[in-house]
Amino acid sequence: MHVFGLLGNPVGHSLSPPMHEAAYDELELDARYVTFEPDRDALEAAVDGAQALGITGLNVTIPFKQDALACDAVAVDEMATRIGAVNTIDFTGERVTGHNTDATGALRALRDHDVAFEGARAVVVGAGGAGRAISFGLADAGATVEIANRTEATAHELADEVPNATGHGLEALESLLADADVLVNATSVGMEEDATPVPAEALHGDLTVMDAVYRPLETRLLRDAAAVGATTVDGAWMLLYQGVEALELWTGESAPVGAMNEALRARL
Ligand code: NAP
Question: Is the pTM of this model over 0.70?
Protein backbone atom coordinates (compact mmCIF):
# COMPACT_ATOMS: atom_id res chain seq x y z
CA MET A 1 0.00 0.00 0.00
CA HIS A 2 1.16 3.56 -0.78
CA VAL A 3 0.92 6.20 1.90
CA PHE A 4 0.66 9.83 0.82
CA GLY A 5 -0.02 12.74 3.10
CA LEU A 6 -0.06 16.37 4.06
CA LEU A 7 2.37 18.05 6.47
CA GLY A 8 0.99 21.21 8.02
CA ASN A 9 -0.25 22.72 11.23
CA PRO A 10 -3.21 22.91 11.40
CA VAL A 11 -4.48 20.52 8.70
CA GLY A 12 -7.89 19.64 10.15
CA HIS A 13 -9.93 21.37 7.42
CA SER A 14 -7.81 20.23 4.50
CA LEU A 15 -9.62 19.22 1.32
CA SER A 16 -6.64 17.21 0.07
CA PRO A 17 -7.57 13.82 1.64
CA PRO A 18 -10.95 13.43 -0.13
CA MET A 19 -9.56 14.86 -3.37
CA HIS A 20 -6.59 12.45 -3.48
CA GLU A 21 -8.51 9.43 -2.23
CA ALA A 22 -11.08 9.94 -5.01
CA ALA A 23 -8.17 9.62 -7.43
CA TYR A 24 -6.91 6.39 -5.80
CA ASP A 25 -10.40 4.85 -6.16
CA GLU A 26 -10.56 5.83 -9.81
CA LEU A 27 -7.01 4.57 -10.53
CA GLU A 28 -7.59 1.43 -8.41
CA LEU A 29 -4.45 2.36 -6.51
CA ASP A 30 -4.01 0.76 -3.09
CA ALA A 31 -3.22 3.97 -1.22
CA ARG A 32 -4.21 6.23 1.67
CA TYR A 33 -3.78 10.00 2.14
CA VAL A 34 -3.06 10.94 5.76
CA THR A 35 -2.74 14.36 7.43
CA PHE A 36 0.20 14.98 9.79
CA GLU A 37 0.63 17.91 12.20
CA PRO A 38 4.25 17.93 13.40
CA ASP A 39 5.48 20.67 15.73
CA ARG A 40 6.86 23.71 13.94
CA ASP A 41 10.47 22.74 14.77
CA ALA A 42 10.03 19.05 13.83
CA LEU A 43 9.88 19.32 10.04
CA GLU A 44 13.32 17.84 9.44
CA ALA A 45 12.55 14.88 11.72
CA ALA A 46 9.15 14.42 10.06
CA VAL A 47 10.70 14.25 6.57
CA ASP A 48 13.42 11.83 7.71
CA GLY A 49 10.76 9.72 9.43
CA ALA A 50 8.54 9.71 6.35
CA GLN A 51 11.46 8.51 4.25
CA ALA A 52 12.33 5.78 6.76
CA LEU A 53 8.70 4.63 6.85
CA GLY A 54 8.48 4.36 3.07
CA ILE A 55 5.93 7.13 2.53
CA THR A 56 5.53 7.78 -1.21
CA GLY A 57 4.75 11.49 -1.27
CA LEU A 58 3.86 14.43 0.94
CA ASN A 59 2.19 17.75 0.32
CA VAL A 60 3.44 20.58 2.49
CA THR A 61 1.37 23.51 3.69
CA ILE A 62 1.47 26.37 6.22
CA PRO A 63 3.69 26.80 8.22
CA PHE A 64 6.23 24.46 6.58
CA LYS A 65 6.31 25.56 2.92
CA GLN A 66 9.31 27.87 3.34
CA ASP A 67 11.05 25.76 6.00
CA ALA A 68 11.01 22.76 3.65
CA LEU A 69 13.49 24.60 1.38
CA ALA A 70 16.14 24.18 4.06
CA CYS A 71 15.52 20.48 4.83
CA ASP A 72 18.84 18.64 4.43
CA ALA A 73 17.17 15.52 3.06
CA VAL A 74 15.28 17.36 0.31
CA ALA A 75 16.79 18.31 -3.06
CA VAL A 76 14.66 21.29 -4.05
CA ASP A 77 14.00 21.85 -7.75
CA GLU A 78 14.67 25.14 -9.53
CA MET A 79 11.09 26.41 -9.65
CA ALA A 80 10.44 25.79 -5.94
CA THR A 81 13.77 27.48 -5.14
CA ARG A 82 12.83 30.56 -7.17
CA ILE A 83 9.34 30.71 -5.64
CA GLY A 84 10.84 30.21 -2.19
CA ALA A 85 8.46 27.46 -1.10
CA VAL A 86 8.02 23.69 -1.39
CA ASN A 87 4.49 22.27 -1.44
CA THR A 88 5.24 18.73 -2.65
CA ILE A 89 7.90 16.23 -1.56
CA ASP A 90 8.53 13.16 -3.67
CA PHE A 91 10.13 10.09 -2.07
CA THR A 92 9.95 7.83 -5.14
CA GLY A 93 13.33 8.62 -6.73
CA GLU A 94 16.90 7.98 -5.69
CA ARG A 95 16.86 11.34 -3.92
CA VAL A 96 14.04 12.94 -1.99
CA THR A 97 12.97 15.95 -4.07
CA GLY A 98 11.01 19.13 -3.31
CA HIS A 99 8.70 20.87 -5.80
CA ASN A 100 6.10 23.62 -6.02
CA THR A 101 2.94 22.66 -7.89
CA ASP A 102 1.10 25.93 -7.11
CA ALA A 103 2.69 27.56 -10.17
CA THR A 104 2.03 24.69 -12.58
CA GLY A 105 -1.40 24.14 -11.00
CA ALA A 106 -2.43 27.76 -11.51
CA LEU A 107 -1.26 27.68 -15.12
CA ARG A 108 -3.14 24.47 -15.79
CA ALA A 109 -6.30 25.96 -14.26
CA LEU A 110 -6.03 28.94 -16.63
CA ARG A 111 -5.14 26.79 -19.64
CA ASP A 112 -8.23 24.72 -18.90
CA HIS A 113 -10.21 27.93 -19.43
CA ASP A 114 -8.60 28.59 -22.82
CA VAL A 115 -5.97 31.10 -21.70
CA ALA A 116 -2.92 31.22 -24.00
CA PHE A 117 0.14 32.63 -22.23
CA GLU A 118 2.63 33.53 -24.96
CA GLY A 119 2.51 37.32 -25.30
CA ALA A 120 -0.45 37.62 -22.90
CA ARG A 121 -0.66 40.62 -20.58
CA ALA A 122 -1.25 39.35 -17.06
CA VAL A 123 -1.96 41.28 -13.87
CA VAL A 124 -1.30 39.52 -10.55
CA VAL A 125 -2.68 41.16 -7.40
CA GLY A 126 -0.68 40.05 -4.36
CA ALA A 127 2.99 39.26 -3.82
CA GLY A 128 2.83 36.69 -1.00
CA GLY A 129 3.27 32.94 -1.44
CA ALA A 130 0.51 32.49 -4.03
CA GLY A 131 1.47 35.70 -5.86
CA ARG A 132 5.08 34.55 -6.13
CA ALA A 133 4.16 31.13 -7.51
CA ILE A 134 1.64 32.50 -10.03
CA SER A 135 3.93 35.32 -11.20
CA PHE A 136 6.87 32.98 -11.89
CA GLY A 137 4.55 30.50 -13.61
CA LEU A 138 2.97 33.12 -15.90
CA ALA A 139 6.33 34.68 -16.78
CA ASP A 140 7.92 31.31 -17.59
CA ALA A 141 4.94 30.53 -19.84
CA GLY A 142 5.61 33.70 -21.87
CA ALA A 143 3.29 36.31 -20.36
CA THR A 144 4.20 39.86 -19.39
CA VAL A 145 3.42 40.14 -15.68
CA GLU A 146 2.28 43.27 -13.84
CA ILE A 147 2.38 42.66 -10.09
CA ALA A 148 0.27 44.94 -7.89
CA ASN A 149 0.48 44.69 -4.13
CA ARG A 150 -0.83 46.60 -1.10
CA THR A 151 2.76 46.93 0.14
CA GLU A 152 4.21 48.31 -3.07
CA ALA A 153 7.84 47.63 -2.11
CA THR A 154 7.12 43.88 -2.00
CA ALA A 155 5.73 44.04 -5.54
CA HIS A 156 8.93 45.74 -6.74
CA GLU A 157 11.11 43.17 -4.97
CA LEU A 158 9.22 40.29 -6.59
CA ALA A 159 9.23 41.98 -10.00
CA ASP A 160 13.02 42.22 -9.78
CA GLU A 161 13.16 38.41 -9.53
CA VAL A 162 10.50 37.52 -12.12
CA PRO A 163 11.36 37.87 -15.84
CA ASN A 164 9.24 40.38 -17.79
CA ALA A 165 7.57 41.68 -14.64
CA THR A 166 6.93 45.15 -13.20
CA GLY A 167 5.83 46.04 -9.68
CA HIS A 168 3.06 48.48 -8.71
CA GLY A 169 0.84 49.63 -5.88
CA LEU A 170 -2.86 48.75 -5.94
CA GLU A 171 -3.79 52.21 -7.26
CA ALA A 172 -2.26 51.25 -10.63
CA LEU A 173 -4.82 48.47 -11.18
CA GLU A 174 -7.29 50.50 -13.17
CA SER A 175 -4.77 51.55 -15.84
CA LEU A 176 -3.00 48.15 -15.84
CA LEU A 177 -6.24 46.29 -16.48
CA ALA A 178 -7.36 48.42 -19.42
CA ASP A 179 -5.34 46.35 -21.91
CA ALA A 180 -4.82 43.17 -19.85
CA ASP A 181 -5.85 39.66 -20.89
CA VAL A 182 -5.59 37.87 -17.53
CA LEU A 183 -6.15 38.96 -13.92
CA VAL A 184 -5.34 36.79 -10.91
CA ASN A 185 -6.22 37.67 -7.34
CA ALA A 186 -3.47 36.17 -5.17
CA THR A 187 -4.38 38.12 -2.03
CA SER A 188 -6.54 36.80 0.78
CA VAL A 189 -9.08 39.59 0.19
CA GLY A 190 -12.52 38.08 -0.37
CA MET A 191 -12.00 35.21 2.02
CA GLU A 192 -13.14 36.66 5.33
CA GLU A 193 -15.54 39.28 3.98
CA ASP A 194 -17.41 40.19 0.85
CA ALA A 195 -14.60 42.42 -0.42
CA THR A 196 -12.41 42.70 -3.51
CA PRO A 197 -8.94 44.19 -4.09
CA VAL A 198 -9.91 45.26 -7.64
CA PRO A 199 -12.31 48.13 -8.44
CA ALA A 200 -15.28 46.74 -10.39
CA GLU A 201 -15.00 49.61 -12.94
CA ALA A 202 -11.55 48.32 -13.96
CA LEU A 203 -12.91 44.96 -15.18
CA HIS A 204 -13.97 44.27 -18.77
CA GLY A 205 -15.32 41.46 -20.88
CA ASP A 206 -12.02 40.55 -22.60
CA LEU A 207 -10.46 39.45 -19.29
CA THR A 208 -10.08 36.00 -17.82
CA VAL A 209 -10.22 36.49 -14.04
CA MET A 210 -8.95 33.84 -11.64
CA ASP A 211 -9.28 34.08 -7.86
CA ALA A 212 -6.91 32.02 -5.70
CA VAL A 213 -9.43 32.35 -2.85
CA TYR A 214 -11.62 29.23 -2.80
CA ARG A 215 -13.70 29.85 0.33
CA PRO A 216 -16.14 31.18 -0.78
CA LEU A 217 -16.03 29.80 -4.32
CA GLU A 218 -17.87 32.79 -5.73
CA THR A 219 -15.97 35.80 -4.44
CA ARG A 220 -17.02 39.40 -4.97
CA LEU A 221 -14.25 39.74 -7.57
CA LEU A 222 -15.63 36.82 -9.58
CA ARG A 223 -19.19 38.18 -9.29
CA ASP A 224 -18.01 41.59 -10.54
CA ALA A 225 -16.07 39.90 -13.36
CA ALA A 226 -19.03 37.77 -14.44
CA ALA A 227 -21.23 40.89 -14.46
CA VAL A 228 -19.09 42.49 -17.20
CA GLY A 229 -18.89 39.27 -19.22
CA ALA A 230 -15.34 38.24 -18.24
CA THR A 231 -14.41 34.55 -18.08
CA THR A 232 -14.13 33.49 -14.44
CA VAL A 233 -11.96 30.78 -12.87
CA ASP A 234 -12.62 30.07 -9.20
CA GLY A 235 -9.95 29.13 -6.65
CA ALA A 236 -10.96 25.47 -6.57
CA TRP A 237 -9.42 25.05 -10.04
CA MET A 238 -5.99 26.07 -8.76
CA LEU A 239 -6.41 23.89 -5.67
CA LEU A 240 -7.47 20.98 -7.87
CA TYR A 241 -4.57 21.28 -10.29
CA GLN A 242 -1.86 21.68 -7.63
CA GLY A 243 -3.13 18.32 -6.32
CA VAL A 244 -3.31 16.83 -9.81
CA GLU A 245 0.28 17.89 -10.51
CA ALA A 246 1.47 16.38 -7.20
CA LEU A 247 -0.31 13.09 -7.84
CA GLU A 248 1.15 12.86 -11.35
CA LEU A 249 4.63 13.56 -9.99
CA TRP A 250 4.33 10.78 -7.40
CA THR A 251 2.64 8.13 -9.55
CA GLY A 252 3.80 8.96 -13.09
CA GLU A 253 0.19 8.42 -14.18
CA SER A 254 -2.38 10.85 -15.59
CA ALA A 255 -4.61 11.97 -12.74
CA PRO A 256 -8.38 11.39 -12.96
CA VAL A 257 -9.13 15.11 -12.95
CA GLY A 258 -12.93 14.74 -13.14
CA ALA A 259 -13.17 12.51 -10.06
CA MET A 260 -10.81 14.74 -8.06
CA ASN A 261 -12.75 17.86 -9.07
CA GLU A 262 -16.06 16.27 -8.08
CA ALA A 263 -14.72 15.19 -4.67
CA LEU A 264 -13.29 18.66 -4.04
CA ARG A 265 -16.36 20.61 -5.07
CA ALA A 266 -18.66 18.34 -3.06
CA ARG A 267 -16.93 19.72 0.04
CA LEU A 268 -16.84 23.42 -0.87
P1 NAP B 1 0.36 35.45 2.03
O2 NAP B 1 1.68 34.90 1.66
O3 NAP B 1 0.05 35.76 3.45
O4 NAP B 1 0.13 36.77 1.14
C5 NAP B 1 -1.03 37.55 1.34
C6 NAP B 1 -1.14 38.61 0.23
O7 NAP B 1 -2.41 39.24 0.37
C8 NAP B 1 -0.08 39.70 0.30
O9 NAP B 1 0.22 40.11 -1.02
C10 NAP B 1 -0.80 40.79 1.07
O11 NAP B 1 -0.31 42.08 0.80
C12 NAP B 1 -2.19 40.66 0.50
N13 NAP B 1 -3.23 41.20 1.38
C14 NAP B 1 -3.62 40.72 2.59
N15 NAP B 1 -4.62 41.47 3.08
C16 NAP B 1 -4.86 42.46 2.19
C17 NAP B 1 -5.76 43.54 2.13
N18 NAP B 1 -6.63 43.77 3.12
N19 NAP B 1 -5.73 44.34 1.05
C20 NAP B 1 -4.85 44.13 0.04
N21 NAP B 1 -3.97 43.11 0.02
C22 NAP B 1 -3.96 42.28 1.10
O23 NAP B 1 -0.81 34.44 1.58
P24 NAP B 1 -0.78 33.41 0.35
O25 NAP B 1 -0.29 32.10 0.83
O26 NAP B 1 -0.15 34.06 -0.81
O27 NAP B 1 -2.35 33.22 0.07
C28 NAP B 1 -3.14 34.26 -0.50
C29 NAP B 1 -4.52 33.70 -0.81
O30 NAP B 1 -4.40 32.69 -1.82
C31 NAP B 1 -5.20 33.02 0.39
O32 NAP B 1 -6.58 33.32 0.34
C33 NAP B 1 -4.99 31.54 0.14
O34 NAP B 1 -6.03 30.73 0.70
C35 NAP B 1 -5.05 31.50 -1.39
N36 NAP B 1 -4.33 30.37 -1.96
C37 NAP B 1 -5.03 29.53 -2.75
C38 NAP B 1 -4.43 28.47 -3.35
C39 NAP B 1 -5.25 27.58 -4.22
O40 NAP B 1 -4.77 26.48 -4.55
N41 NAP B 1 -6.43 27.99 -4.66
C42 NAP B 1 -3.04 28.23 -3.15
C43 NAP B 1 -2.32 29.12 -2.33
C44 NAP B 1 -2.99 30.19 -1.73
P45 NAP B 1 0.87 42.73 1.70
O46 NAP B 1 2.17 42.26 1.12
O47 NAP B 1 0.65 44.19 1.56
O48 NAP B 1 0.64 42.24 3.12
Answer: yes
